[in-house]
């Protein structure tokens, strides 16, 4: 199989990580793989390091309206004689799907990782319906959101049910409960410090816990545009002795193994990888019952789901787990089992490969 992965972004994120890992997986099985991505971007740089073929492409806001870009791209892809090409973003589909299909690619696929649907504008309608063969969400919530908000973009039978994200279980071994009796409970969160991740909602819920005299340490890993705002908010709420901003971390596994409860306040997610990683290590989770969170966390089995965006309920559910060691242990064991069953990267990549290789 000759397979292409098309990603017009220079930044490195979850979608780029999936493209990189899936491309390597296909290469390991003997397929010829081509990565279409900006040559100065992180995805292209990492792909070059492992010997993948790179085609330098530059996507702008109006690429879909640029005939020279479309002609050049069609010629480039036609020379590569691809059997399959996988997109990872709406923007890239709008910019390039028609040209890709015109180049003779037999199967053109969009892997969709965010529960946000694009507008049903003419440019999207044309490229989705003419240039795309399959739409593959990574969760039920993404599929439902897309079909509800932008149903005209997809033809009948164009939507594959969903193929979930996964993690490498060898990297996230089970450790379970690690806190000794009498030690202060450590809460943790590893994410981009942005509005989406809802850490502005976490801070007031932590204040409720502190005001009730409940001892805890909150460790927040990651960087982002809201870092200064969140540090200031923590100080304004008197949480400076409880909350630690530890910045970027290279090893997420080591981080989650050292905490007791993973608290996750994201407003929406395609599939929250960090929650899966915490569960794989045997850590219970507290998260808002919104978006795909309910597909990751089984309420009252692997963690506790909270009324969406209620800081009072978030504090109450966190308090339950802080005070109940047996419940933390129980949820941790069930969480690991759930990840092994639903979010095993090796199994899910094999499912993807079977789909991409099917007629």
Number of helices: 14
Distance between the termini: 12 Å
Question: Overall pLDDT, averaged?
Answer: 94
CATH topology of the largest domain: Rossmann fold
N-to-C SSE series?
EHEHEHEHEHEHEHEHEHEHEHEHHH
Radius of gyration: 22 Å
- Please state the structural category: alpha/beta
Strand content: 15-25%
Per CATH, the superfamily of the largest domain is Glycogen Phosphorylase B
User: What profile does the largest beta sheet have?
Assistant: 6 strands, parallel
Name of the CATH architecture of the largest domain:
3-Layer(aba) Sandwich
- The backbone outline, from C-alpha atoms, is elongated
Write down how many β-strands occur, each being a DSSP E stretch of 2 or more residues: 12
CATH class annotation of the largest domain: Alpha Beta
Strand order of the largest sheet: 3-2-1-4-5-6
Low-confidence stretches: none
Q: What is the share of helical residues?
A: 40-55%
Oligomer: single chain
Overall domain count: 2
């Amino acid at each position: 199989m000759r397979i292409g992965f098309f990603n017009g972004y220079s930044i490195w994120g979850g979608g780029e990580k999936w493209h990189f890992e899936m491309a390597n997986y296909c290469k390991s099985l003997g397929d010829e793989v081509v990565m279409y991505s900006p040559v100065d971007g992180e995805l292209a740089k990492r792909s070059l390091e492992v010997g993948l073929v790179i085609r330098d492409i530059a996507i702008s806001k109006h690429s879909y309206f640029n005939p020279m870009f479309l002609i050049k791209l069609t010629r480039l892809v036609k020379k590569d004689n691809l059997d399959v090409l996988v997109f990872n973003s709406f923007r890239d589909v709008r910019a390039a799907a028609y040209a890709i299909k015109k180049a003779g690619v037999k199967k053109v696929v969009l892997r969709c990782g965010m529960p946000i649907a694009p507008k049903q504008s003419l440019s999207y309608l044309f490229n989705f319906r003419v240039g795309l063969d399959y739409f593959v969400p990574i969760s039920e919530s993404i599929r439902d959101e897309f079909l509800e908000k932008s149903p005209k973009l997809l033809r009948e039978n164009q939507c594959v049910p969903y193929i979930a994200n996964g993690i490498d279980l060898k990297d996230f071994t089970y450790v379970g409960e690690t806190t000794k009796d009498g030690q202060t409970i450590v809460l943790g969160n590893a994410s981009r410090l942005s509005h989406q991740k809802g850490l502005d909602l976490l801070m007031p819920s932590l204040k409720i816990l502190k005001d009730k005299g409940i001892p805890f340490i909150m460790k927040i890993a990651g960087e982002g545009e809201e870092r200064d705002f969140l540090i200031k908010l923590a100080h304004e709420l008197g949480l400076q002795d409880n909350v630690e901003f530890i910045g970027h971390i290279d090893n997420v596994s080591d981080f989650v193994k050292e905490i007791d409860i993973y608290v996750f306040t994201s407003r929406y997610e395609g599939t929250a990888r960090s929650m899966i990683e915490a569960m794989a290590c045997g850590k219970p989770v507290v998260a808002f019952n919104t978006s795909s969170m309910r597909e990751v966390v089984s309420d009252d089995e692997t963690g506790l789901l909270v009324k969406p965006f209620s800081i009072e309920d978030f504090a109450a559910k966190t308090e339950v787990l802080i005070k109940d060691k047996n419940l933390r242990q129980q949820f941790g064991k069930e969480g690991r089992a759930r990840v092994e069953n639903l979010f095993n990267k090796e199994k899910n990549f094999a499912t993807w490969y079977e789909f991409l290789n099917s007629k």
